[in-house]
Amino acid sequence: MFRIKKLDIFVAKQFLQLFMGAFFICQFVLMMQFLWRYVDELIGKGLSMEIMAQFFWYMGLMLMPQAFPLAILLSSLIVFGNLGESSELTAIKAAGISLLQASRSLIVIVLLIAGVSFYFQDVVGPKAYESFYQLLLSVKQKSPEVEIPEGIFYDGIPNSNLYVQKKNLETGVLYGIMIYRRTNSYEDQAIILADSGMMQSTAEKKHLLLTLYSGEWFENMQSQELGGSANVPYRRETFTQKQIVLDFDSEFNLADETGIAADARSKSIDQILTDLDSIVIFNDSIGRTFERDARYRTFNMVPLSKKDSLKAYAQAASGKADYDTLYSKLSSDKRRLVVQRAMERAQSEMYDLNMKSDYSFDINRRERLHQMEAINRFSLALSCIIFFFIGAPLGAIIRKGGLGVPVIISVLVFIIFYIFDASGMRMARADEWTVWFGKGIPMMVLTPLAVFFTYKANNDSVVFNIDLYKELLRRMLGLRMKRNITRKEVIIEDPKYDLDVDLLLNVCKEIEEYSMEHKLLYWPNPINVFFHAGDDQEIEKINTALETAIEDLGYTRDKLILTELNHYPIIATHAHTRPFRRKWMNVVTGLVLPIGIFFYFRMIRFRLRLYKDLRIIRNTSERIIPRALDLSTKHSPITDIL
After folding, report:
1. SS3 sequence, 56-68?
2. Once rounded to an integer, what is the mean pLDDT over residues 589-599?
3. Which residue has the higher pLDDT, 71 or 407?
4. Percent of the chain at pLDDT above 70?
5. Can you give the pLDDT at residue 188?
6. Which residues make Cβ contacts (< 8 Å) with residue 80, sequence separation at least 6?
7. Partner of 579 for a Cys bridge, out of 192, 432, 571, 599, CB 3.0 to 4.6 A?
């Protein structure tokens, strides 16, 4: 039985507080990104605050399902990152509570959010989409506010281009006016010049009244009642004051929503499935019609005679016609006629096929859009659950709270999701991928990641331990750390210098024998490297003895010995013989040629380094041994008694 515990309330409270803040941030970012697509349509239209409020309201309702997954990802990352950073997650696991048990209240909350997301997409979203794009279409059709610039032609007034040389902002007087008017056709055009003028809107805001002073009017007369008369090609009028009425509707009127209602995004899931059945039936009927038309289409032929005509028709109908023989029997004039008709027929068929292809693509595209929108209703709701099982385990593994690392990881995961989702949608819409594959590829990529991260976090994995990857990279590239031996704060017992000297003398002797037996400067046989076992027991023995002496001498108070100990290199005991310890890994590496070449030259580098290390060890030991013998004499039992 599910019982609500204090831990569930604590984790749920932390999550809900962060989710609300993350949701509004994500919603704001998505709305700003969406707004940039239509900012050109809104600027300069003189829209009222009521219209702008409706625009943003419907936009917010449309984008809420997209903000839910990103907010869940960010808030779950921060919650479990904070718990891990403050060691609260460690205390929870120490009490025998696994990660899934600690997050069970959040799983219930995320499932509820996924249900809310589906409700918004199926009920609220279609209505918001229809209202939003009806409003957007109305904004596009609305005429802009009249803001005449200086020195350039202004085309914001229908059927007119207006040029103003200078304008007085205080009085509203325009100077150096040139108007280029387009009326019914190319011939019916007029050019109006004026020294100055005034512009104002009529009371019903359907027209502009332009009062001009001291100007001329030039108008083409070819398409008017005097058209066709060569004596009067145009009309010229000089005036001192003239008023012109220009059509300019500055009111905001809602556009017709008939075309918007047919869009799949403005329908619920029931409407999409119902319309999809009708679309499939209609598309199949069109396809059968095109197939029947192509199957029973016959070619026009030029007959030689009545007898030959019937014979040729029978052969063409049976598909056994020899067109080359029939063509060779024609006269030269009829051959040209046949070729001409064949070219005309081929061109006509090509145009017909192109038209049918475009029409088939359009109707199939409508079917794909309905299928994509039906899948999208479930995929966005499912992404809320997947993003939670990515964010919560990552937060528990990384153990970094705040808005630093979680924000970066959230953005990276969302970018991956967006790239796959946008690419899949584009390819499915273009009929290059199937709809199910195009819309399902984001889920196919992120679901394994969610399972992997959840498994690793629930088992306390160190998959994101930076030090582990640094160590792996260091070993792969052959990098090594230097010794850092310092004087101990508390020394209970001095080193056994006699034993250490014996160890170092033995190490030097074994190095001499090893150098004479193994030719480290020679290139090894690749077959022995990758396909034969090759642990170097002698080097391991030398390294063990050396490390024992170094560890014991590290307790000395002598500064000279401490300084010399730091000169000893850290030896790689097997990297100079083969790339890996396991034989099957060496065999695979040797068979994959590019990787094998890399590790072969890496091994040669380790052999050269070992050759130098052995010389350094011998020289350093020769400097330490006399000093250790001197200290051994001073600390001998006889010396202590005397």
Report:
1. HHHHHHHHHHHHH
2. 80
3. 71
4. 80
5. 61
6. 89, 103, 391, 392, 393, 394, 395, 396
7. 599
